[in-house]
């Protein structure tokens, strides 16, 4: 039995045809588009511009960006808060239903059949601020709800006593407040 030398095996490799037989169509007819029944369209991440709802922290501002981890199902919450409570290691973010930032429902938004209330320090929703009251980081929280169900809810920051101090409407990136008026 003869074996090929390394130079022979590189130069004598057979060509491979990647074309389909004439009877197989590789594209959908122009009037139809191929469908993938198991694929759902991606829902845009959500963005909230945070403003004060507290006389104790009238200058607090910030941004919250929420997306979903496709593997674990966690919400990935990026936040950037300015002039909040100083040196707070047990401030918390939560998501709530409500008519506006001043009329929030008392129960945070999560699926109690899927998880305990995640909008607590122990649930992973803690925010840690520095000496200036600023905080910028991300957290991962599981609340048992699909990302699109968070649209038009409110991202709310609480101080260490649990009092809501700032809030912003969660709107899909690329949309404006009118998106929530259609819901």
* Major sheet description: 10 strands, antiparallel
Number of helices: 2
Count every beta strand, where a strand is a DSSP E run of 2 or more residues: 10
Low-confidence stretches: 2-31
Shape type: globular
* Structural classification: mainly beta
Overall mean pLDDT score? 84
Instruction: Tell me the fraction of residues in β-strands, as a range.
Output: 25-35%
Radius of gyration computed on alpha carbons: 25 Å
- The H/E string reads HEEEEEEEEEEH
Distance between the termini: 75 Å
Level of helix content?
under 10%
Classify the oligomer: single chain
Task: Give a verbal description of the structure.
This protein is mostly beta strands. The chain is built from 2 helices and 10 strands, in the order αββββββββββα. The chain has helices at 6-11, 178-182; strands at residues 46-52, 61-68, 75-82, 91-98, 104-108, 126-127, 135-141, 154-158, 164-169, 171-172. Strands 1, 2, 3, 4, 5, 6, 7, 8, 9 and 10 form a 10-stranded antiparallel β-sheet that branches. The radius of gyration is 25 Å and the shape is globular. Mean pLDDT is 84; it is low at 2-31.
């Amino acid at each position: 039995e003869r074996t090929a030398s390394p130079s022979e095996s590189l130069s004598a490799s057979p060509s491979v045809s990647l074309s389909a037989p004439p009877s197989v169509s590789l594209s959908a007819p122009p009037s139809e588009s191929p469908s993938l029944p198991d694929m759902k369209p991606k829902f845009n991440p959500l963005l909230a511009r945070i403003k004060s709802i507290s006389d104790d922290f009238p200058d607090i501002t910030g941004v919250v960006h929420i997306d979903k981890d496709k593997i674990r199902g966690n919400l990935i919450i990026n936040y950037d808060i300015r002039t909040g409570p100083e040196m707070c290691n047990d401030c918390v973010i939560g998501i709530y239903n409500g008519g506006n930032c001043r009329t929030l429902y008392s129960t945070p938004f999560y699926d109690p059949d899927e998880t305990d209330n995640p909008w607590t320090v122990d649930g992973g929703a803690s925010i840690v601020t520095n000496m200036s009251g600023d905080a910028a980081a991300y957290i991962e929280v599981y609340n048992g709800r699909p990302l699109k169900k968070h649209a038009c809810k409110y991202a709310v920051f609480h101080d260490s006593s649990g009092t809501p101090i700032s809030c912003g409407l969660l709107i899909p990136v690329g949309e404006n407040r009118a998106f929530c008026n259609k819901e």
